[in-house]
């Protein structure tokens, strides 16, 4: 039955869209971000969506390590080791949240593997077609203790430590986008950034219906959820940015312990209150695979992990 539902969340939402839906999309953070708003007039919806999209673009510009424009994250990554650097409050706060998740996930999530990530190059324009040499991987893999806060400032402890918010900033941007929609009086909406989303309210007289993509069968869903209220659903998968080399799959979610793409999972989905937490934890749980899940109880998360054999190893959805 599940297969009757369409694959991509994007399509799943479109399929059940009601006439009163107001929809718009923007290309932000390297993905098509879809806004769906229900229950307000067009003018309110359009203003709210534009403001939310601008805010999400601002967040991308603040955190990205790509592109021509300089920002405090790139400056930090260039700063000499051992020199305290003042980061904007917002960057400092997200880094603090990321460092907490690093500790709670036993190092599976690591916001300082930016150098290693650039070496693998999955997010660059010219994507590589073969893995880098082991020696270069070792030289780029950050040590366990990488950045330290001193008063208001942060410093790098090793030249291999380079910040990368790629596994958490999109979730944070979605959260900010939802806050903006709410501040415009919107009570029913979804912001869907390429399958990572947060929803509020209901879809007319029904809950929102969300399809979670099957990690191997393009066009099919592995789970379909009916959700309402205020909830985020984020998936990390090895099918988004990858290449095959000598019969093996190499993808963009890196195990900080080995420096290589994590091998334990095909996808990890987290349902949580905050898209920021769901984003970071979906990456962490993807890496942890079927190891015991150290997710802190107080985070109130539900999980769906598909292991490297395609078996569902944890389903609390
Ligand atoms: P997506 O960006 O496809 O939604 P993720 O949220 O899992 O996927 O984030 C993957 C990105 O996060 C990578 O492109 C890289 O920038 C960064 N990253 C890769 N491995 C890790 C890791 N172990 N911890 C933190 N960030 C990571
Ligand atoms: Mg993530």
* Uncertain spans: 1-12
Instruction: Name the ligand types.
Output: adenosine-5'-diphosphate, magnesium ion
Structural category is: alpha+beta
Whole-number radius of gyration?
Answer: 19 Å
CATH architecture of the domain at 72-156, by name, is: Orthogonal Bundle
Helix content: 25-40%
Distance between the termini: 18 Å
Membrane topology: Lipid-anchor
Pfam families: ApbE (PF02424)
Subcellular location: Cell inner membrane
Catalytic activity: L-threonyl-[protein] + FAD = FMN-L-threonyl-[protein] + AMP + H(+)
Task: Explain what the structure shows.
This protein has 317 residues and is of the alpha+beta class. It has a domain at 72-156: T-fold, CATH 1.10.3980. Helices cover 30% and strands 27% of the residues. The protein has helices spanning 9-15, 42-63, 72-78, 89-104, 114-120, 134-140, 169-183, 275-288, and strands at residues 22-28, 31-38, 85-86, 147-150, 153-156, 188-193, 196-201, 208-213, 221-227, 229-237, 242-245, 248-251, 265-272, 302-307, 312-315. It has an 8-stranded antiparallel sheet, covered by helices on one side. It has a 3-stranded antiparallel sheet with strand order 3-5-4, with no helix packed on it. A hairpin with a 2-residue loop joins strand 6 (188-193) and strand 7 (196-201). Helix 2 (42-63) packs antiparallel against helix 7, helix 5 packs antiparallel against helix 6 and helix 7 (169-183) packs antiparallel against helix 8. Residues 109-111, 113, 117, 122-123, 164, 166-167, 170, 196, 236, 240, 252-254, 256, 279, 283, 287 line the site of adenosine-5'-diphosphate. It comes from Mariprofundus aestuarium.
């Amino acid at each position: 039955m599940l297969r009757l539902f369409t694959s991509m969340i994007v399509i799943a939402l479109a399929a059940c869209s009601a006439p009163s839906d107001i929809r718009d999309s923007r290309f932000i953070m390297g993905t098509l971000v879809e806004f769906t708003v229900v229950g307000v007039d067009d003018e309110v919806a359009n203003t709210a969506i534009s403001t939310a999209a601008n805010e999400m673009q601002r967040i991308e510009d603040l955190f990205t390590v790509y592109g021509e424009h300089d920002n405090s994250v790139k400056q930090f990554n260039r700063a000499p080791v051992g020199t305290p650097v003042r980061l904007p409050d917002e960057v400092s706060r997200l880094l603090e949240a990321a460092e907490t998740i690093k500790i709670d996930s036993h190092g599976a999530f690591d916001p300082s593997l930016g150098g290693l990530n650039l070496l693998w190059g999955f997010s660059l324009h010219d994507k590589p077609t073969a893995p880098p040499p082991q020696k270069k991987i070792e030289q780029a893999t950050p040590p366990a203790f990488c950045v330290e806060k001193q008063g208001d400032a942060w410093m790098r402890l090793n030249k291999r430590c380079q910040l990368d918010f790629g596994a958490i900033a999109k979730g944070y941007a979605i959260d900010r986008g939802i806050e903006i929609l709410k501040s415009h009086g919107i009570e029913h909406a979804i912001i869907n950034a390429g399958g990572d989303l947060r929803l509020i309210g209901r879809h007319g007289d029904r809950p929102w219906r969300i399809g979670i993509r099957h990690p191997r069968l393009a066009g099919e869903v592995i789970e379909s959820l009916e959700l309402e209220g205020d909830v985020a659903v984020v998936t990390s998968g090895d099918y988004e940015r990858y290449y095959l080399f000598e019969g093996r799959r190499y993808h963009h979610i890196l195990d900080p312990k080995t420096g290589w793409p994590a091998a334990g999972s095909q996808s990890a989905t987290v349902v949580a209150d905050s898209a920021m937490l769901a984003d970071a934890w979906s990456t962490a749980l993807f890496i942890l695979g079927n190891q015991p899940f150290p997710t802190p109880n107080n985070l109130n998360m539900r999980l769906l992990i598909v292991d490297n054999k395609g078996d569902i190893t944890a389903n609390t959805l």
